[in-house]
User: Fold this.
Amino acid sequence: MQGIAPNGPSIHRPPEQRRPPAGRAPAPQPVHQALICVALPAFAISGEHGQLTGDGLEGFYRGGRRLLARCRVKVAGAEPVPVQGRMLTADRARFVGTVRTPAEAGPDPAVTVERVRDAEGIERITVRSAAVQELRLVVEVSLGTDLAELGAIAAGRAGPEIPAAVHASGLRWSAPGLHAVVTADPQPGDVLASAGLLCWEIQLPPGGSRNIELRVRPELPGRPRTPEPVAASRGGAPPPWGDAEADGDDTRAAALLAASLADLRALLVRDPGHPGDVHLAAGIPWRCGQLAPAEALWAARMTLPLGVRLAAGTLRTLARMQLPGPGPDRGRIPGALRHSGAHLPPGCTGVEATLLFPVVLAEARRWGLADQETEGLLPAAEGCLEWLLASVRDGVYLPDPAPGGPYRCEVQAHAHRAALLGADLLESYGRPGAAGLREWAAGLRRRFQEDFWTDDLGGGRPVAARTPDGRRIPHLGSAAAHLLDTGLLGGGAYAAGLLDRVQTEQVARLLGGPALDSGWGLRSLGAKEPGHNPFGHRSGAVRVHETAVAVAGLVAAGYEKEAGGLLRGALDAAEAFGYRLPEMYAGEQRITGSAPLPHPAACRPAAVAAAGAVQLLASLAGVRPDVPAGSVAVRPPRTAPLGELRFTGLRVAEQPFAVRISRLGLGMVEEAADGLQLGA
Assistant:
């Protein structure tokens, strides 16, 4: 990043020299090659080389501020030659480099420098010697920071480096309302504040090593303490799920589940006003500040096989955000507008969240959410359903984002599912309104099959949206997957979808066809559609969340061949990404020997990607619980796309649940809560 010196004294350039060129809008800094350690509210972003240079987004962050931008290590006057940089866990990365000293006659380096970087602001530097004689070496660590806000850094508008001052066994930087302190153990032999430099002279016997530990921490004078992470690697509250594991013929399933659970744990945050309630941040680095209601609910829903505690905390948090009356927004959950690509205006994530709320509550009850908790959240769900019926008024379709906005096909699918599952929920607790919701949903289904379908020589396809004046917007994209996402009712059954049998079969064929299936997952816009862009986050890129929705919907509808193709492609992509799936990646067609192209601005880790991976794998188990009725059914795909597979540590009725799927696609429950009756 301009304005931060990689070594030596700080450089103060005028702010105008660091502004983006005239006429160029601020753009996110690329992060696709970064190693990101996360333990919210703290995270660290590093290049594969391990040196924190201050370029781009590199640095240690906490609460949305960069505490340390530069941390460059020299040994014997030279920077280590990078050998390897990789993630150890979701919150730690390891970097290894080598150094040749003047005492070495041959080409082989005798000194190794290992750096283990922790999201919570800890860096352990280990210098090891393989020389045959004792070495006396100088270790220098050059530090600097700008204490800038993440948003400013992301737009390329970070401030100049701040002068450092000596503080105890390290350095301190100050800005209005915030100090950053770096302490070192052991205490450095020399500190040069003007250059941000800590120095040690160390002696290494043959085969010996020395450790240096740096700790970065914020000080917030006069402000409340920043909320602590929910689950740190060295303690903290446990995550709201058990120790789920997978094993089987395809070992990648186990690796993907383990990595996804680690990412989900790293993204957990507490509601500051209600510490008992946790939810997931949307993603790192761009979306870790304000709660994103739709993404939080999607992630909670997709992780229900792990338990209901995350869903309960997310629902309680969002219930407190629900807009009060009077007025047309009464009962709606607020949410930001979201870009929808070139064909449609921005959509409202608040509409999506409002329709998801009763669905997540109804399904969480089926998985084992206690009646007392369900009843406590029922008024908020009723508010969402009342907002739905009030918004459609005398019509049949729900506009998004405003009364004059288009009628999107996926929004109608969300609304239809919310009405059916909401009616089931209300009826279960003797609350009024179920009949009206079912009547409206039936009318929507009848009209939708005609108004949102266009015939063609290929068998027809759903249209993406309709305008209030009846004009069809016909492009084909991954939004069609939501037409197969129906929702879990009692007895292990799924709610009726918006499409008839013939249309459902055609959508399944389209989802598994080359226009939408890239070979790595589902494209957000078909490859042959006008405006297709493989890197467009709503116009061609693969979004893990919607691929997971498609796979689950296809399995539930019985289209196992198409589901298996999408699932295997997503699993191959996960392997290429080291099992930490980004929220999206390029939708370029897969060819022999290729690898998925990362999107330079994608969050990684991302809640919906990690939770989507859980849903992808859980779809193979086919668990359909109905805890209120005391039953659970297991209906895995008969094709067994990953061969034999076993899940342990799932949770039904908040008790451990284990299931094995044979190579013939037969499911056998190995562990379940007492009193649960196993259905077919």
User: Anything to note?
Assistant: Residues 489 and 495 are 6 Å apart (CA to CA). Confidence is low (pLDDT under 50) at residues 1-23, 224-236.
